[in-house]
Design brief:
The complex is a heterodimer of chains A (about 450) and B (about 325).
Chain A: H1 2-45, H2 48-82, H3 84-116, H4 125-154, E1 160-162, E2 165-167, H5 171-175, H6 180-208, H7 214-248, H8 250-257, E3 263-264, E4 268-274, E5 280-286, H9 289-295, E6 301-302, H10 318-345, H11 353-379, E7 384-386, E8 390-391, H12 392-395, H13 402-429, H14 433-441
Antiparallel strand pairs in A: 1-2, 3-6, 4-5, 7-8
Chain B: H1 3-37, H2 41-73, H3 75-84, H4 86-109, H5 114-137, E1 143-146, E2 149-152, H6 154-159, H7 161-188, H8 192-223, H9 225-233, H10 235-254, H11 258-280, E3 283-285, E4 289-290, H12 298-326, H13 330-333
Antiparallel strand pairs in B: 1-2, 3-4
Helix pairs in contact in B: 1-2, 1-5, 1-7, 1-12, 2-3, 2-12, 4-5, 5-7, 7-8, 7-11, 8-9, 8-10, 9-11, 10-11
The chains are: A mainly alpha (about 450), B mainly alpha (about 325).
Organism (chain A): Bacillus carboniphilus
InterPro entries (chain A): Cyt-d_ubiquinol_oxidase_su_1
Keywords (chain A): Cell membrane, Electron transport, Heme, Iron, Membrane, Metal-binding, Transmembrane, Transmembrane helix, Transport
Chain lengths: ~450, ~325
């Protein structure tokens, strides 16, 4: 039993750290691009509202970056601390993207420092804006490299095993494995989308509270337009991911869709519950849609769980996570489209209370969507840590000290999460945008 | 040169980089906190914050680079250290997390919050202590293979005089490196008050640094004679280190050429650190892993070296830009920008 416990605890601690880190990592990837867009518009239109937007976003951003950096460091080391056997094996193939991720991170760190402390140092404002580009590139490249590692764990390739030893290693093939394109696309677009919604939600909230001004209205419009574009790409990426799964990881898609029997013209199942006999109840069924989603063909054959060995089946709970993710994605697309339509045809109505509340909801929902998506992706590849090669139980540490370590990190993250929110509120609460505008530009 | 040797040299250079920049950072945090407690914060804290704000994130990357690199070049280390270091590693991680987050909370959010500053300052001394234990463990004698798993002998580590002498050296070196850098920085800022205070700190921490170094040597002789004898073979490295230490301290004492003095401090640690590293070879973890037994496959080794060179081409100009904007820009250092 002791061994089983350490496997479970290793999983729990990894989950805890990643679930916490991903909040800040998503912000770290998505917010720089929003800052960069705002500053660019500000310079082009010579509109100090947008310039202030960029500054204030950057000020909040730097606090979240700090937490993102340190929790990222934690997960980097925890990989070796909690999964030593896995790292010993996979380390021979995935060091390349891990190594490159550090370079991207380095690049970003250098230019973020420069960006934050050179607002007024250049004669031409556009020079300062140029510095935002390496930050955007660095953060997106980090996401790219680290996602290739995760993709590799889902569809390992670029090596072969002879008598338990890895041979014929091809680092590039491992990096550009079949899961990489759709995963990277999905991770980047959904991070951009989530940050656009979070920033939109903040503006909408201030407007709702009656403290809003032209500054917040401009912020709302900018973030909503961005959110719509990013939501569109996220949906597209989601569709590509489903097609990828159908071909390369059918067990994950089948578990998400409760698709038990291999069949042609498979139905798409939304919501629903499983009864004790393992039958689906209360579901909404879209005939043949799963086949279409998977292969663009209503009559294509979709592999069901019946083709997967019992001990290699992912937990069926992932269906709910999948539903949550997809629903939130649809909600985001819908609400940002509504915003766009209102902006064009009924501008006044955009500031209607109900609409604003719907936008406020989109921020936290989008982050929940990110979490649900990652939980789905990760639980969906159980029991594998390296699909087809190593099971989770073979990769975990054998240490007996995990309970206390888990407790320590849990407390740490709780405290950090709370203080982070307190500090962020404090930065903006007593320093309204209009007052700062007055001080800085007038 | 062969791949394992290039690999370990690359990593050692980065660890040296981390040693210098992190020491400045860790020490500065402690001095900032100490300044607050002794009501001298108005003298030095602005100066410290002006230096640290743009670079703290970069410091962290040096560390990440090292541990990602070592797993990359020597995957076996992940297995041995990973299994054994769960507790000390997690403690060091928690300290790093506290330090990094509370730096940001204190610096960008709630300025003048004493609790934040305390956490930031105290961890600045605890982290080097925690990290230095890894170097101690690499000497062997603190890990054991039992029933196919690696056991960390915590009690041995805590009762070893060698281990404590390394911890002691780590802490005083941090304070010495940091104080001598900040002395230079204060001089550039033309801030006489800060300069005289920081110069005192530098001189105060100079003797313990050298005493601690000697203690480590004596401890090493008792703990790992092979390593000690290797070190004696390249005694001139340590001789050079001592020379630069004396020269640096003399310059600081005379109150001139603080920039050269700091370069001498860097050289002092460069020779000591590389002397230590070279005499440690070929072992990474005595006696389990050598750089030859633990090395990754050749393809990956070559790829990593290529990427490393490409990465440096990108990083070096960026770092130079960073230094020019914040370290060598007189107006910024003086607080005019």
């Amino acid at each position: 039993m002791a061994e089983l416990d350490s496997v479970l605890l290793s999983r729990m601690l990894t989950t805890l750290t990643l679930a916490f880190h991903i909040i800040f990592a998503t912000i770290g990837v998505g917010v720089p691009i929003m800052i960069s867009i705002a500053e660019f518009i500000g310079i082009k239109k010579n509109d100090e509202h947008y310039l202030l937007l960029a500054r204030r976003w950057a000020r909040g951003f730097v606090v979240t970056v700090a937490v993102g950096v340190v929790t990222g460091t934690v997960i980097g080391l925890q990989l070796a601390l909690l999964w030593p056997s896995f790292m010993e094996l996979a380390g021979q193939v995935i060091s390349l993207p891990l190594f490159m991720e550090t370079f991207a991170f380095f690049f970003e760190a250098i230019f973020l420092g420069i960006y934050l402390y050179t607002w007024d140092r250049f004669k031409k404002p556009i020079y300062h804006w140029l510095i935002s580009l390496p930050v955007v590139i660095g953060s997106s490249l980090s996401a790219f490299f680290i996602t290739t590692v995760n993709a590799f764990m889902n569809t390992p390739q670029g090596f072969s095993v002879e008598d338990g030893i890895l041979v014929g290693i091809d680092p590039l093939a491992a990096m550009f494995n079949p899961a990489t394109p759709s995963k990277v696309f999905h991770v980047l677009s959904s991070s951009f989308m989530t940050c656009a919604f979070i920033l939109a939600a903040i503006s909408a909230f201030v407007l709702l509270k009656g403290r809003g001004t032209d500054y917040h209205k401009k912020a709302l419009k900018l973030t909503l337009i961005s959110a719509f574009i990013f939501s569109f790409f996220t949906a597209l990426a989601g569709d590509l991911s489903a097609k990828f799964l159908a071909e390369y990881q059918p067990e994950k898609l089948a578990a998400a869709e409760w698709h038990f029997e291999t069949e042609e013209g498979a139905d798409l199942i939304f919501f629903g519950t499983l009864n004790e006999e393992g039958e689906i109840e209360n579901e909404i069924r879209f005939p043949k849609l799963l086949s279409f989603l998977a292969f663009n063909d209503f009559d294509a054959e979709v592999i069901g769980l019946d083709q997967i060995p019992d001990d290699e089946e992912p937990p069926l709970i992932v269906h709910y996570l999948f539903d949550v993710m997809v629903m939130i994605g649809m909600y985001g697309l819908g609400i940002s489209l509504l915003g766009l339509v209102l902006m064009k045809f009924k501008p006044k109505f955009l500031y209607n209370k109900v609409v604003l509340w719907l936008i406020v909801a989109s921020g936290p929902l989008a982050m929940i969507g990110i979490e649900a998506g990652w939980f789905y992706a990760e639980i969906g590849r159980q029991p594998w840590i390296l699909r087809g090669f190593m099971k989770v139980a073979e990769g975990a540490t054998t240490s007996t000290h995990l309970p206390i370590i888990f407790g320590l990190f849990l407390v740490l993250y709780l405290i950090l999460g709370v203080i982070c929110v307190v500090v962020l509120r404090k930065i903006f609460r007593n320093n309204p945008a209009e007052a700062e505008l007055e001080r800085r530009f007038k | 040169m062969d791949i394992p040797l290039i690999g370990i040299t690359v990593l050692w250079i980065f660890l040296y980089g981390y040693l210098i920049v992190a020491s400045i950072d860790f020490g500065a945090g402690f001095f900032a906190f100490h300044g607050k407690m002794t009501k001298q914060d108005h003298i030095i804290n602005d100066l410290i914050s002006r230096y640290l704000s743009p670079v703290w994130e970069v410091t962290n990357v040096f560390f990440v680079f090292f541990f990602v690199g070592i797993v990359g070049f020597f995957p076996k280390t992940a297995y041995y250290y990973g299994t054994a270091l769960l507790i000390p590693g997690s403690v060091a991680l928690i300290l790093l997390v506290i330090r990094g987050s509370f730096y940001a909370f204190g610096n960008y959010g709630s300025k003048d919050n004493r609790v934040y500053l305390f956490l930031y300052g105290a961890t600045g001394l605890l982290i080097p202590a925690a990290l230095s234990t890894t170097l101690t463990i690499s000497e062997g004698g603190f890990l054991e293979e039992r029933d196919g798993t690696i056991v960390f002998l915590a009690k041995e580590l805590f009762t070893s005089t060698y281990s404590w002498s390394v911890v002691f050296l780590a802490i005083v070196s941090v304070l010495f490196i940091s104080a001598s850098f900040l002395t230079y920085y204060a001089d550039r800022a033309n801030d006489q008050n800060a300069l005289s205070l920081l110069r005192k700190y530098a001189l105060l921490w100079a003797p313990p640094t050298i005493v601690a170094s000697l203690l480590v040597f004596i401890g090493l002789k008792g703990h790992n004679l092979r390593h000690f004898n290797n070190a004696m073979d390249i005694w001139y490295m340590f001789g050079l280190s001592l020379f630069f230490f004396l020269a640096a301290t003399w310059l600081i004492y005379k109150g001139k050429k603080y920039g050269i003095a700091f370069i001498f401090v860097m050289l002092q640690f460069f020779f000591a650190f590389f002397g230590y590293g070279a005499s440690h070879l070929p072992y990474i973890l005595d006696p389990y892993i050598t750089i030859y037994s633990g090395v990754t496959n050749e393809t990956m080794g070559i790829t990593l070296i290529i990427v490393f060179i490409a990465g440096l081409l990108l990083l070096i100009p960026s770092l130079i830009l960073l230094l020019r904007l914040f370290l060598f820009d007189a107006d910024y250092v003086k607080g005019k920008k």
